[in-house]
Amino acid sequence: MKNLQREDIYLISRHSNVTEKVIEKTLKENIYHDKERWQTFLRLFFITLGIGFTTAGIIFFFAYNWADLNKFAKLGLTEILVIATTIIVLLPKINSTTRNIILTGASFLVGVLFAVFGQIYQTGANAYDFFLAWTLFITLWVLVSNFAPLWLLYIVLLNITFSLYTEQVAKDWPAILVITLLFLFNTAILLTFIFLDKDKKIKDIPQWLIYILALGSVTFATMGIIFGILDGYDPVFPVLFPMVAVIFALGIRHGIQSKNGFYLSVIPLSIIIIISALLLKISEGGSMLLLVSLFIIVSVTLVIMNLINLQKKWNHEK
């Protein structure tokens, strides 16, 4: 039986005459991690930790010794590190997971290289074109590796690049328009990953990546609606509101169909925040603050109760 969960085994043991030895054997084969799994986990954990600390150490090295290094040393050391990590990735004896982790570290070093270049030639380390160049130069690595943490870095860089562009170039764009575009962008990526995850031909996409993308999409949706409410209903607001309503409805439907409580908790929480902002827009008096507080307490309690009931129902259906 595939995807056998601990709750399934407990449910079978309560409603069947399966012996304890069979239950214990099933738990060891399907639930408990054996020695090899723990060794694999620890190996990947320490590799990730080592690469993360190495990258952080390189960044702090340049920050601490910046005044004592000449231009050649600054650029040369960074380029050597990028080239060295790239060569290590190409070694045939390294397994794919370790290769992708090292490639992720190399992607961070590319950002360090552009930051060093920007500081030396005063191009601006916080300019949007710095993040744009960083994003463009790791695009091929992201596509080739198809590694979830690297995809997350890539998506974050795209969001930062666009946000800085609107702050430094398109300064006349209203805030709600920027948030709406970010909401559409992150929602499109989220839907793409969800559809790819359902495709059996595609390698399984980690749920944590989908959850982070969903959380980002809901966050931008919430911010956009609140901006529209508090800023006097911008002309973009009538376009944003129905799109958010449709996406929220689809998200709740997806959560019910997939029996996933994440969507059924994040989306109602967003709705609660939006309604609270609408009430505060009507009045900011003491009585309204008390009403909003009571509304939040009651609504959150109802959401939790419904989630508990749904979880019990889903467990019973198994």
Automatic annotation (TrEMBL):
Alphabetic keyword roster: Membrane, Transmembrane, Transmembrane helix
InterPro entries (alphabetical): DUF2157
Pfam family membership, one: DUF2157
Protein name according to UniProt: Predicted membrane protein
Lineage: Bacteria, Pseudomonadati, Bacteroidota, Flavobacteriia, Flavobacteriales
DUF2157 domain sequence ranges: 26-151
Organism: Chryseobacterium shigense
Transmembrane segments: 44-66, 103-121, 127-144, 176-196, 208-230, 236-255, 262-282, 288-308
